[in-house]
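Q: I'm writing a short methods note and want an example of a predicted protein-small molecule complex. Could you take the sequence and the SMILES for flavin mononucleotide and return the bound structure as tokens? Please keep the output block clean; save any remarks for afterwards.
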Amino acid sequence: MKALAINGSHRKGRNTAILLKAILDYLNENGVITELVELPDYTIKYCIACNKCLFESKCSIEDDDMNMLASKMMEAGVIIIGSPVYNGNVTSMLKTFMDRTRWMHMKQEMLAGKLGAIVTVAGLRNGGQEFTHEAIERFFASRHMQVVPVRDPESNIFNMGVMGTLFESLRDSEKGNKAKIIWKKSVKDDKLAMLTCQLLAKNILDELKNRAGR
Ligand SMILES: Cc1cc2nc3c(=O)[nH]c(=O)nc-3n(C[C@H](O)[C@H](O)[C@H](O)COP(=O)(O)O)c2cc1C
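A: Understood, no commentary inside the block.
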């Protein structure tokens, strides 16, 4: 079984990648083959809305990296998508990537039944993580994939995915009423986000075991 993580951040190796790697590391330690794809490493052209994929399960654009990335998705049993919040939504790079997978579901649902998991990171608390999360969840639903939530009955944590934030606190200014935001150095300092990465990975493993036992 292979788990593929797709990082929609325009910055490689930063906060979204940190959370995705935390999930992949846990899966890998438990026998799952893992791969992290960082979208800035690849050339992904815009969908040109030629609509040829309504009639044939292929994309008319063949001179970029999308077919290779599509093969990686086909090989994987688990697809984890991570996005920073950009203007309250997924990044433009991730949206372009999602648009270009349209041929994988118009004629035939080629990703149906795979497990999906969702990671978002925002600068602020309540910075748009939930809407961004829903955009990815809708993508998985449209592909007939099953989203694995974060749940831990023992700690009462339940969330539909990992939602990180860089906001730490507000420091009141000595001058006037202006407040200064204190940022976390990295999402590694977001204890809840790091814990939910572990819980999500554990939930993915449990679901894989359930499926193997069926
Ligand atoms: C173009 C752009 C738009 C952003 N919009 C938001 C936003 O709407 N809400 C928010 O809380 N943070 C916003 N941010 C901050 C990012 O979500 C945050 O820095 C995130 O950690 C970036 O992930 P990365 O470290 O993987 O690049 C924005 C950043 C950029 C570059």
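A: Remarks, as requested: The pocket of flavin mononucleotide is lined by residues 9, 11, 14-16, 84-88, 121-124, 127-128, 166 (CB under 6 Å). Helices lie at 15-29, 66-75, 92-99, 129-142, 191-213.
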